[in-house]
Design a protein that fits this description.
The structure holds two protein chains of two kinds. Chain A is an all-alpha fold. Chain A contains three helices and no strands. The chains are: A mainly alpha, B mainly alpha. Chain B: Its main location: membrane.
């Protein structure tokens, strides 16, 4: 009986390690993409690409990087992250309102 | 079962950082803190954006910023984010030594970042005379970037003291949440930096 329990728990441990490994692979891919986006953003500015779209594209690249960081590196995509997601999106809503207020309504 | 046995089980659970009530509370509480930090940094970003046009003399964003150093700093901090992910991977596999090793690498990369930032500020102050008081742009810049640098410094102290304090204890359900939330904090520092290098440096260069 106890041997069986041990086998079961060892099996569980292996499954868990495989899951962790799978997540790690995803995180390394995320990291590679983040490096790529950083390179694109810097080279766009260094090569002096003058376009009407350069500012929105830079902000978009930053937004995607932050989403990667939050969902993959900080595990927000995983189960049991409902509260963190609500809190962070709440914070980001206020953050956006703050930035819009400071840059448009307030007279400096 | 005594309190110590509860914190040092024979088989560590799947998520050691959330296995105890204290761990669960720390987890949610720390995310609340990060939500608040988002708003705090947003107000600093808003202030910077509103004031960055109020320059004095030749010290404008285009003239001051050098993208080479900013690129090196970005790579250092981004890599340190990955190494702290590695540390948490080893925590979930209950490998304390490897976790400590990767946390150590994270701290070294963070120190490299901080060194670059100190050099950058020193350079601006002594070669350009660009200080906190020289223009509204200067005040906004040093407040925002300096506050982020302060977060990096605090994160380094935090992770280092956790590593030293728990060196002989090994991993248990008491300190696993502590390690986990310190790594969340470190990732958040990188989140803020992504916006700093984009909004302050890259958009500053574009003009």
């Amino acid at each position: 009986m106890s041997e069986r329990t041990e086998n079961v728990s060892r099996h569980k441990l292996n499954v868990r390690k495989d899951e962790n490994k799978e997540e790690m692979v995803q995180q390394v891919i995320t990291f590679a993409l983040m490096i790529l986006f950083t390179l694109i953003a810097f080279s766009m500015v260094i090569l002096d690409i003058s376009s009407y779209f350069i500012k929105p594209i830079l902000l978009l690249l930053a937004g995607v990087q932050v989403a990667f960081q939050l969902f993959y590196f900080m595990h927000m995509k995983n189960k049991g992250h409902f509260m963190p997601t609500v809190i962070m999106f709440g914070g980001m809503t206020i953050a956006l309102a703050t930035i819009i207020t400071f840059t448009t309504i307030i007279w400096w | 079962m005594s309190h110590d046995d509860v914190l040092n089980p024979k088989h560590m659970p799947h998520d050691p950082e959330k296995a105890t009530l204290e761990g669960k509370n720390k987890f949610v509480g720390f995310w609340m803190f990060l939500g608040g930090e988002t708003v705090l940094f947003a107000s600093l970003f808003g202030t910077y954006l509103a004031l960055s046009g109020s320059t004095s003399g030749d010290n404008t964003p285009e003239n001051l910023f050098g993208l080479e150093l900013v690129f090196i700093m970005t790579m250092l901090l981004l890599t340190s984010s990955l190494t702290s992910v590695y540390a948490m991977y080893h925590m979930k596999n209950h490998d304390f030594k490897k976790m400590q090793l990767w946390l150590g690498v994270t701290v070294l990369l963070g120190l490299g970042f901080l060194g670059c930032e100190i050099y950058e500020f020193y350079h601006y102050i002594h070669e350009y005379g660009f200080t906190f008081r020289s223009s509204a742009f200067g005040s906004g810049f040093y407040t925002l970037v300096g506050f982020h640098g302060g977060h990096v410094l605090f994160g380094l102290f935090w992770i280092t003291s956790l590593m030293i304090r728990n060196q002989k204890r090994g991993l248990n359900l008491y300190n696993a949440p502590k390690f986990y939330i310190s790594s969340l904090y470190w990732h958040f520092i990188d989140v803020v930096w992504v916006f700093i290098f984009t909004v302050v440096y890259l958009l500053g260069k574009v003009g």
